[in-house]
Amino acid sequence: MQTIMNETASNMLAAYPECIKESKSNNRAQALWWLLIAAVLFAIYYQQPDKDSTLCLMQIALIALGVVMAVVKLLVSSGKLIYMPTGSTVKKQSYSFNVALQPDVLRCLEEGNTSRLKALKTDDTGGLLVELLDSDDHLFMAARLFKYEPHGYEAKTDWVTMKR
Question: Exposed, middle or buried by CB within 10 Å (0-12, 13-18, 19+), for 49?
Fold first, then answer.
């Protein structure tokens, strides 16, 4: 499912280059802050006369936490989609449907009717998957239909701009 979401973001950027962009947050600064906190705690720990005290053991745990958080911030890149005209964040949602509802889902996508699509009964067994991208200010919405094939989900429609 995560693979589809990542493909969704890149396909969305290609489909709407004039209004959607990906914003990457700078995790290096956050990693440096975590390392600085760990370094300060280590300096305090190093000056303690009794290294076996409970306070020193807590400091060691916090130093380890700071180092781990710094490594995580460096390894994990977080990005989000932005609707450029308003600067609003675009959220990704997915809805699963039974394959029997494919004609109804296709009709909703052709009409661009989101409320009708959301009114359809979802099904966790999901032979169909609709990826919906919606800006926080509700000025932009797009959807795409995937169908489960023996080797995974395949896109069955291009991106369709939706209305509420």
Answer: exposed
The predicted-structure confidence for 125-145, as pLDDT tens digits, reads as follows 778 898 888 888 888 888 888
DSSP SS3 for 88: strand
The C-alpha angle with vertex 135 and arms to 129 and 140, in degrees rounded to 5, equals 85
**Residue 81: φ, ψ to 5°:** -90, 140
User: Residue type at 92?
Assistant: K
Distance separating alpha carbons of residues 42 and 45, to the nearest angstrom? 5
Q: Which helix (H) or strand (E) holds 145?
A: strand 141-149
Q: What is the pLDDT of residues 16-34, one digit of tens each?
A: 656 677 766 667 888 899 9
